[in-house]
Design a protein that fits this description.
transmembrane helix, Na/Glc_symporter_sf, Na/solute_symporter, transmembrane, membrane, mainly alpha
């Protein structure tokens, strides 16, 4: 995007400046509520479901969504809706209905801490290191995306843009901790939606409406570019180079459940809810706006593929949204759109940095390096580690810069880190016979396997011709290897006594435990089962326009 510049006017800068002032104001206000480490890392477990629900979806509305999914839309077309409908909603429902009672009732402060209780210190340390590395790498993606916008706005070189963006995000997390991040994420959700709706509307007007878009894309990319399932039979060609089985099992099961049920940047939002009912409803509430995000992210990517012929031919797919902003939006609206982009990237980075500081402080520093210190010590460490995480994220941003489509990079990271964690978690939760040694060696093997597979793909040994197709297969490899190692090791080693597994292994009574209820929690429209099944049915209906 070296030659792309966005010409903002005075009104645009006023909108942008007002947003940054509000963000820092929220951080200063949240600072007053941070009295101990629980407040800093989990908002004192005091937030209502609607706040944590919007923060849950907003935390994912970072570079993953805006630049990444728009890039996917421009590169792969309507196949990108799979990442929302089969690749998000079922897993979010599973998290709310099945897994959240065990996370929340065990009073863990992080996802790795669950493995400490279920298995051993070695499994806990390994999972903590994996989480910390993954969080920083993903934070770097969001930081790189924010730097892209700063470079387009001001013409700054990438290093200066990365440093400036990182310092601002650091300021509001250090000030207010998770509460600052979450309340800013609620604000950012509405800013992002308000910013991207005009881009979709003006883009459709530019191409002559939906019918005009269909005609243009059909002429340039083929009719299959606008279908979600077309060409996904075995041996049939499609842009993903993936068939319906790898889409369903690789993306819909391994990647999706691995990300949404074990990614602490998301689970942390549920753990900050005020009671179990609110914690379970958090991902279920988030599922409803999540399934409609393609209308303001994927559709603009497809529009960009139709009106920006240079995409993928000398211009990175990552530039799809900025190109449309430059070519379609008038002053004033452009400022709102740029503000929305910056909001999305800061939300994504803040989510990963706040999960990094929690995991490092509670699961590595407190549990393994410096146990037994007072709470004030861990609060100070959390703030220092936040700064360290941002600095490291500045470095990992340059790894993201080497990918034309950052979604390809992100899905690679998910196959490396999230999928084996999910395999270990699902066995730990549903199989009492799963042992501590199996948890460690299964997780280690499941993490190494997709890295080896990806290396073979990059070397041309694996005959797959699209990054996303390779990521789906790599995710299946990670899951199968993890389970394939964990099961025999479990059968060969001694499990924990049943008395030590109370509350850590699935039982119907534990899954149905309502926890401490508040007035209104029993209303039918707040029941997790009603919300969950409604989300699944609606997601299935959302496939209809892309299946005709």
């Amino acid at each position: 995007m070296g030659g792309l510049r966005l010409a903002l006017g005075p009104v645009d800068y006023v909108v942008l400046g007002a947003y940054f002032a509000v963000v820092l104001g929220i951080a200063f206000a949240a600072r007053r509520s941070v009295r101990n480490s629980l407040d800093f890392f989990l908002s004192g477990r005091s937030l209502p479901a609607w706040v944590t629900g919007l923060a849950f979806v907003s935390a994912n509305l970072g570079a993953t969504e805006i630049l990444g999914m728009a890039a996917n839309g421009a590169k792969y077309g309507a196949y990108t809706v799979h990442w929302y409908l089969i690749g998000a909603i079922p897993a979010m429902v599973f998290l709310g209905l099945v897994m959240m009672p065990f996370y929340y009732n065990s009073k863990v402060r992080s996802v790795p801490e669950f493995l400490l209780l279920r298995f051993s210190r070695s499994s806990h340390l390994l999972s903590s290191v994996i989480f910390a590395v993954a969080s920083i790498l993903i934070a770097g993606v969001n930081l790189y995306a924010l730097a892209i916008v700063l470079r387009a706005l001001l013409g700054w070189p990438l290093p200066l843009s990365v440093v400036t963006a990182g310092v601002f995000v650091l300021a509001y997390i250090v000030l207010g901790g998770l509460s600052s991040a979450i309340y800013n994420e609620v604000l950012q959700f509405f800013v992002i939606v308000a910013a991207l709706v005009p881009l979709t509307v003006l883009g459709l007007l530019r191409v002559g409406g939906v019918s005009g878009l269909v005609e243009r894309v059909t002429d340039t990319r083929g009719a299959q570019f606008l279908t979600a399932w077309g060409g996904t039979g075995f041996g049939e060609p499609n842009p993903l180079d993936a068939n319906w089985l790898t889409i369903t099992l690789g993306l819909g099961f391994a990647v999706s459940f691995g990300y949404w049920t074990t990614n602490f940047a998301e689970v942390q939002r549920s753990l900050s809810a005020k009671n179990l009912s609110a914690a379970r409803r958090t991902p279920l509430i988030a599922a409803f706006p999540k399934m409609f995000i393609p209308a303001i992210v994927v559709v603009p990517g497809i529009i960009a593929a139709a009106v920006e012929p240079a995409l993928g031919r000398g211009v990175q797919y990552n530039d799809a949204i900025p190109l449309l902003m430059r070519d379609l939006l008038p002053n004033g609206v452009l400022g709102l759109a740029v503000t929305g982009l910056m909001a999305s990237f800061m939300a994504g980075m803040a989510a990963n940095v706040s999960s990094f500081n929690t995991v490092f402080t509670t699961d590595i520093w407190q549990a393994h390096l410096m146990p037994g210190r007072d709470d004030a010590h861990y609060l100070r460490v959390g703030r220092v580690v936040t700064a360290v995480g941002v600095v490291i994220g500045m470095g990992t941003a340059f790894i993201a810069a080497s990918f034309s489509n950052i979604m390809d990079y992100l899905q690679t990271l998910f196959s490396f880190f999230n999928v084996p964690l999910f395999a270990t978690f699902i066995l730990a939760l549903f199989w009492r016979r799963m042992t501590a040694r199996a948890g460690f060696w299964g997780l280690l093997a499941g993490t190494v396997a997709p890295i080896v597979f990806y290396s073979l793909y990059q070397a041309g040994v694996v005959p797959i011709h699209a990054d996303q197709g390779a990521n789906m297969v790599g995710s299946l490899v990670a899951f199968v290897v993890d389970v394939g190692v964990s099961v025999p090791v479990s059968l060969a080693t001694a499990p924990k006594p049943d008395a030590e597994l109370a509350g850590l292994v699935y039982t119907r009574s534990a899954a149905r435990d309502p926890g401490v209820a508040e007035p209104g929690d029993q209303a039918w429209y707040r029941r997790p089962a009603v919300l969950g099944w409604s989300a699944l049915v609606l997601a299935a209906l959302c496939y209809v326009p892309f299946s005709l």
